[in-house]
Amino acid sequence: MEFRDLKKQYQVLKPEMDVAMQQVIAAGMFIAGAPVKKLEEALACDAGTTHCVTCANGTEALSLMLMAWDIGAGDAVFIPDFTFFSTGEVVAFRGATPVFVDVLPDTFNMDPVKLEQAIVRVQKEGRLTPKLVIAVDLFGQPADFAHIIPLAKRYGLRVLEDGAQGFGGSMGGRTACGLADAGTTSFFPAKPLGCYGDGGAIFINDEQTAALLRSLCGHGKGSMKYDNVRIGVNSRLDTLQAAILLIKRKAFWQYELDAVNCVAGWYTARLADTVKTPFIPDGFGSSWAQYTLRLESATQRDAVQAKLRAQEIPTMVYYPKPMHHQLAFAGLANVETPCPVTETLCQTVLSLPMHPYLTEAEVETICNALKAAL
Ligand SMILES: *Cc1c(COP(=O)(O)O)cnc(C)c1O
Questions:
Q1: Going by C-beta distance under 8 Å and a sequence separation of 6 or more, which residues neighbour residue 20?
Q2: DSSP 126-140
Q3: For residue 241, which of 100, 156, 229, 297 sits 20 to 30 Å off, Cα-Cα?
Q4: 1 touches 353 (CB < 8 A)
Q5: Is 108 in the pocket of ligand 1 (CB under 6 A)?
Q6: pLDDT tens, position by position, 129-156
Q7: Residue to mutate, 165, 177, 241, ligand 1, most ligand atoms under 8 Å from C-beta
Q8: What is the pTM of this model?
Q9: Is 57 touching ligand 1 by the criterion CB < 6 Å?
Q10: Do the beta carbons of residue 72 and residue 95 sit within 8 Å?
Q11: Is the CB of 200 under 6 A from ligand 1?
């Protein structure tokens, strides 16, 4: 059994995929070919933004956005303590200071109450300027932007949606990646919409910033490629990956998003009486980047994981370590916030196999093994 079955997905998409990849190779336009623009237009439409700028990966997408907004030394950027490393890495990489904010125990997403406490604390300390909130759509479910955005505005902060895991999620009928001042996503193969390598995208409604991002992605280009008006980076999505994503995107909206929601329903129906299953609040939709349970303790979680592994059922721990415990942030972060919820989650979460091609029989097998292990 696979944790996320990309081979099965390829078998389903193979006829169309092979033709599309061959077309790119035959045309010889490996960089900035027609599929890149076509994909950007389609993705902007999905997220409900006027612009989508593709780039090399989800980390670069975040980084580019921080460059465009000129986030740097002396700035405080508020990020959840429970996330993938990139969210904080890009902040420190720009020389700004990540401030870790605890998450909600049921949705795993940034806690707006703790966010306000952190902003007030940093303001009082007076050493850093609060500039930005990066809220993460963890495991496929959008963060609580309905509360985070008005709160951030009250303190004059921008909000960036890290939708690396969020593509396809929704909040109040609006789709993820377009829920804040800007949004980013990742096309890493295991994400809800993944390519066959690395890729990323930025979503934004403001024309001027979109143009700046396009310049930053291309070595700070001005009127043309060999006119460089600022220091930028080389960050782009290959034509081949764009062609692959055009096909995957179609499958995603046609049936994969429904399929993962169906799988989540099968799990929850079988497990809700036994363990803490994921919670999706009213008005929210998840694209199920992960299906994550909360167990009683680290001991129980690790024992369950070992028992499932013995039956060749793969599970994962996302994430075993709070951001504020990462050695890389030692001396670089503002770590005064205690984050007890994140500490507990890191000890107790367990993610089960999740992808659109899981069958109900496989879910049954996993649930029976899990219940026996408990
Ligand atoms: C995967 C991920 C990223 C980084 O994306 P890459 O394409 O791997 O660089 C950033 N943030 C979160 C929350 C992620 O899960």
A1: 35, 243, 244, 246, 247
A2: -SSEEEEEEEE-GGG
A3: 229
A4: yes
A5: no
A6: 999 999 999 999 999 999 999 999 999 9
A7: 165
A8: 0.98
A9: yes
A10: yes
A11: yes
